[in-house]
Amino acid sequence: MAPLHQRIRGAIEARILSGELGPGDRIPFEHELMADYGCSRMTVNKALSALASAGLIVRQRGRGSFVARPRIHMAALAIPDIRETIEARGHVYGLRLVARAEVGADGAEGALLRLPADRTLLSLRCVHLADARPYAVEARLINLAAVPEAGAADFAATPPGSWLLAHVPWTQAEHRITAAAAGEAAGPLGVDAAAPCLVLERWTWREGESITYVRTVFDGARFDLTAHFAAQGMG
Prior knowledge:
Residues 2-70 form the HTH gntR-type domain. InterPro entries: Bact_HTH_transcr_reg, Chorismate_lyase_/UTRA_dom_sf, His_ut_repres, Tscrpt_reg_HTH_GntR, UTRA, WH-like_DNA-bd_sf, WH_DNA-bd_sf. By secondary structure, the chain is of the alpha+beta class. The protein has helices spanning 4-17, 30-37, 41-53, 82-88, 108-113, 160-167, 186-189; strands spanning 57-60, 64-67, 93-104, 120-130, 133-143, 172-181, 196-206, 209-219. Helices cover 26% and strands 31% of the residues. A hairpin with a 3-residue loop joins strand 1 (57-60) and strand 2. The radius of gyration is 23 Å and the shape is elongated.
């Protein structure tokens, strides 16, 4: 049988992951848990400390412990296909290719892909549409040394992300998600420059070789990001 502190942690974690305890809800006080489990404060503190370290609860001196506001861990996110996402929600997908050019890797673009200065990159800018309305603005760089066939691909007809997922295998990926004002994406998105947006940046590699970098800006009023989780090791 697992140590008592692990069982206390597991019981609270199960209540959080099942939704019984939601963000901001109070966790039972330490003295309540001590009474429930017939254990010492040290045992309860060990369980709560583990939950806090896992990011599931927030401990506040003098107030108690509360379920943490959810944070999305990038490793839990799959590589999204925006066209599939829009169509799965019952909308008509559209694509507008704004710019396409081959550029050297000796500037900021090469730094984003972490490539030597002598490489050539394909730079793409496009707008994804849902029911003919702007849904997201995408700026993408593709390493042509790793994916030479991208140079001949028709990205006015096929979204770059969809094409890459169908044609180019990857072995590693890194996501970064931030919130920001629309800024220069305001015009293509049809929103105010100060409108809240979600910015998704992603890098992919194949056996250590950079494939692509993409920065996608989503209109916060039309986009939600969802990840599904399952409890591990719960009986």
